[in-house]
Amino acid sequence: MLTWRSGVKLVERARGALRQPEEDLIETAINKCRARLSGTAVFLASAANGVPLALTQFVKHNHVLHQRVVLVTVLIEEAPRIPSADRAEIIEVVEGITRVILHYGFMQYPTIYEGLRLACEQGKLPGIDLTDITYYIGRETIIPSEDVAGMALWRETVFAFLQRNAERSAAFFGVPPRQVVEFGTEIEI
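The structure corresponding to this sequence follows.
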């Protein structure tokens, strides 16, 4: 368990170093994207600030953004249950880019689709058709390395094995499987 916990902290530190600030995303959306694709794209984000790595990879390789981009972060709170009225926190980053923070209690099963459906029903996300969304999810491959300060190499190898065999984010968060696109990134720890 200590190896898992330490490994998760190392991966989040590496993600933080790779993650772009929101200001770069706004600059990219306004000035650098050659086109805007029709529809809505949802990018899962592990942090409630910055740009998800999957979005960074998508823009880097395609030079486009969708007309509507939703950045979704799930936070598990220290309360057993969070009422439906308090579930979705909506932050408008810039026109066409919205951050949604879904709050769940530790006794609740965090389902992104249900959280977004609830936000749409409450009028917090108008104009979104949940059946016509593409969910972009980052998948990291952990590369153990002696060059990066962290854990002993054998513990990093154990963590990489555990992480590779962990449940996929899309399955864990109840994302409709036919609407998922995964972007892979290698992270050295």
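Residues 2-18 form the longest helix (17 residues).
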